[in-house]
Amino acid sequence: MAFTPADQRELYLPLIEGIHETPPFGLFMRNLVARTGARHAFLILTLANAAPDQAPVVIPVSAPRATHEPPLDFRRLDALRLHPHHALRPERVYALEEMLDYDNPAQLALQRAVLEEMGIRYARWLRVSAGGAADGWLVLVRLREDFSAAAVSLLSAIAPHI
């Protein structure tokens, strides 16, 4: 998928300039949430040379319609023991259904209940890897309807640039 001028203006350039922002990549994340119709999102970045006790950088973003809601709790989401993030193939977009534990009915029921409580019915995960220097996980969620094919295609197209 080729980048359109809007993609370049709204996503690619803010991604490049985002490294200089505090916190980093804020404009890129806000624009990505708007373009995909996500309700909430976060980007987690971990450096390969980080100290064992060093927390990852977490950049949460909410759509304007969801600013009155609490931000997405990545620790609570991580505690659900969804598919291990480090096992995700870089630059591939995963749907929520691919992350659930279908082998353990009790765990699956817990996962679905907590996701419902968090207002997550649809989600997309994207792992990015910077050649052994860093790893990142981008998570976008929606409540009412699934992500469009265009939104998923956009995530796939932007993945190599992240």
Write structural notes for this entry.
The chain is an alpha+beta fold and 162 residues long. Helices cover 35% and strands 21% of the residues. The chain has a five-stranded antiparallel sheet with strand order 2-1-5-4-3. Strand 4 and strand 5 (134-142) form a beta hairpin. It is globular. The mean pLDDT is 88.
Descriptors:
about 160 residues; alpha+beta; globular
Task: Describe, in short, the structure shown.
It is built from six helices and five strands, in the order H-H-E-E-H-E-H-H-E-E-H.
How much helix, percentage-wise, in residues? 25-40%
Unreliable residue runs = none
What structural class is derived from the secondary structure elements? alpha+beta
Hey, roughly how much beta strand do the residues contain? 15-25%
Q: First CA to last CA: what distance?
A: 15 Å
| Assembly form of the protein | single chain
Question: What is the mean predicted local confidence, pLDDT?
Answer: 88
* Biggest sheet details: 5 strands, antiparallel
Rg, alpha carbons: 15 Å
The spatial strand order of the largest sheet comes to 2-1-5-4-3
What is the N-to-C order of secondary-structure elements (H for helix, E for strand)?
HHEEHEHHEEH
Shape: globular
**DSSP E strands, number:** 5
Counted by DSSP, the helix tally is 6
